[in-house]
Amino acid sequence: MGFLGVLLPMIRLYLVGVRVLLYQLFNRSFTLPALPKQNGRVAIVTGGARGMGFEVARRLTELGMHVIIAGNVEEEGLEAVTKIRGQTKEGKVEFLFLDLSSLHSVRQFAQRFKATGLPLHVLVNNAGVMMVPECQTEDGYELQFGLNFLGHFLLTHLLLDTLTHSGHHDNHSRIVNMTSATHYGACLNLDDLQSRSCYSSHGAYAQSKLALVMFTYSLHEQLVGGAVPVSTSAVDPGMVDTDLYQNLCSPAQLLQRPVAKLLFRTPAEGASTALFAAVATELEGVGGCYLYNGQRAASSETSYDQELQAQLWKQSCSLLHDNWRANTNLDRSLIRCDHDIQWQGWYRMFYQGTSVGMPESCVPRFRCGTNVTLWLNGPHPRPEDGIVTREVCGRWNGDCCDYKPPSIKVKACPGNYTVYKLVDPLTCNMAYGTEPRTHFQQRLRLRMDLQRELSHAETAQFTSQIREKLIQMGYPSDITVKMV
Predict the structure, then answer these.
(1) Which of 295, 324, 353 is the last residue of a domain?
(2) How many alpha carbons fall within 13 Å on the CB side of residue 143?
(3) What is the Cα Rg of the chain in Å?
(4) Three-state DSSP class for 178?
(5) Please, how many CA atoms are within 13 Å of residue 55, restricted to the half-sphere of its CB?
(6) 3-state secondary structure at position 232
(7) Do residues 273 and 31 lie in contact, with contact meaning Cβ atoms separated by under 8 Å?
């Protein structure tokens, strides 16, 4: 199996490559339409110092954008900035260090960017490595999966709040994930995402690109479900003449060089569909699509498997040490914040997997300790109110409202849900500090549809069973249950 585990992915990828080359032999490269000016808008392009990433960064700058080139080689990034500035007087371009193979670096980058106070309208997840020898990231993940997919997965989540605030329902922010036709030959092995049982550089690369396509679809569904003004697309640039092919086997490299001159796209041609996805008016509000040569195309059958998408999402969150979790019982577009996450954006609060329904006023002492984690002082805002600030009180000694931690910002969002932001990161643990015990002074109402009327004995037995179940769930032992 070890030999076949290496050989079969290689064969599948080279067959896909032949199919792409035949298409490029008989079809011209996509020609970009006139793109609208982007003055005042901000974009981040990972891997923007060379190849297609450089072309994307250069063209976005020409359109008037403020472009941040994110890369892991500072000298190369600064050189790209100088080159772009020499070619255009439009827009603005700068470099920020980002090593996508380091989750710590990804978090640092997000913090540095947010500290600038800039909005973010376009995120192009372009950086990647291809068919490298077996090695691991500093976090212990297989390099291609860790850098191509997992680093971008985390980066996107860390910047999603900024993208959301920068978008409008008639002018979405956009996320562009650069993938590859190699995903057609990929197998997603959820039992071995790190390719430890049998490493194939071809298989690992294809898997990382398939993961990006599936992430695009999952994220799109969640954004649409939450009425979030952000669109996301997967872009296949075709076979492009870049340095990515330096890790091909020797025979393939010898063949690649003359073929590249004849049939490969140039970096500028390869960047055209990504630019189209990033700013074209034709794609305003359009997301969840796979774009190839400027057109929507069908990705692999596997990529549409929603169960696999959900499992990949869950495992990816787990690999990030559970810092980000998609809620599976409620609105999946809302992301749960754990106690060890710094509160730098807007979050829907959850407690033990349940959406926190914040009451509209502080409460007396006898109501402390309910399963609602925090009490909100003042009414919830309406969408037209924008952002309001409220004080909160939790389960503390004395009256709940005697303790006033740093305020919480609240805003109502389209879709009839409310999001919260604790001003001081140190109070994040308060959101999950309350024990799930409820001392209700008011009645709880539970409606059940019964097919027949119960006898007195059946009623007594039924209410007793409900009471025992509630006590097992953490409700007070003196709770009473009545059927009316």
Answers:
(1) 324
(2) 15
(3) 26
(4) strand
(5) 18
(6) strand
(7) no
Q: Which residues contact 153 (CB under 8 A, 6 or more apart)?
A: 215, 316, 320
Distance CA 338, CA 33 (A): 44
- Could you tell me if 61 and 131 lie in one domain? yes
How confident is the model over 155-201, as pLDDT tens digits?
999 999 899 999 998 899 999 999 999 999 999 989 889 888 889 88
Q: What is the pLDDT of residues 397-421, one digit of tens each?
A: 334 444 445 566 666 655 445 666 6
Q: Is residue 45 part of a domain?
A: yes
The reply to whether 257 and 333 lie within a common domain is no
- H or E segment to which residue 251 belongs: helix 250-263
Into how many domains does the chain fold? 3
Alpha helix (H) ranges present in 121-180? 143-144, 151-166
Beta strand 375-377 with 387-393 is antiparallel
* pLDDT for the residue numbered 365: 40
Sign of the torsion formed by the C-alpha atoms of 46, 51, 52 and 56:
positive
pLDDT in tens, 316-364: 887 885 333 332 222 323 333 333 333 344 545 543 334 444 544 444 4
* DSSP calls for 285-352: T--SEEEETTEEE---TGGG-HHHHHHHHHHHHHHTTTSEEE-SSS-TTSEEE-TTS---S-B--EET
Domain that holds residue 35: 2-324
Name the residues annotated as catalytic: 205
Last residue of a domain, one of 324, 346, 368: 324
| Residue 230: Cβ-neighbour burial (10 angstroms; 0-12, 13-18, 19+) | buried
**Residue 319 and residue 386 in one domain:** no
For 373-385, the DSSP string reads --EEESPPPPGGG
Closest CA to 5 of 202, 210, 208, 200: 200
Tell me the C-alpha to C-alpha distance, in Å, between residue 308 and each of 204, 247, 288, 304. 17, 30, 16, 8
CA distances from 149 to 125, 146, 155, 205, 237 (A): 9, 6, 10, 10, 17
Q: How confident is the model at residue 97 (pLDDT cuts 50, 70, 90)?
A: very high
CATH for 83: 3.40.50.720
Do 403 and 380 belong to one domain? Answer: yes
Residues 277 and 62: their CA atoms lie apart, in Å, by 16
Is residue 243 a part of any domain in this protein?
yes
Q: Establish if 103 belongs to a structural domain.
A: yes
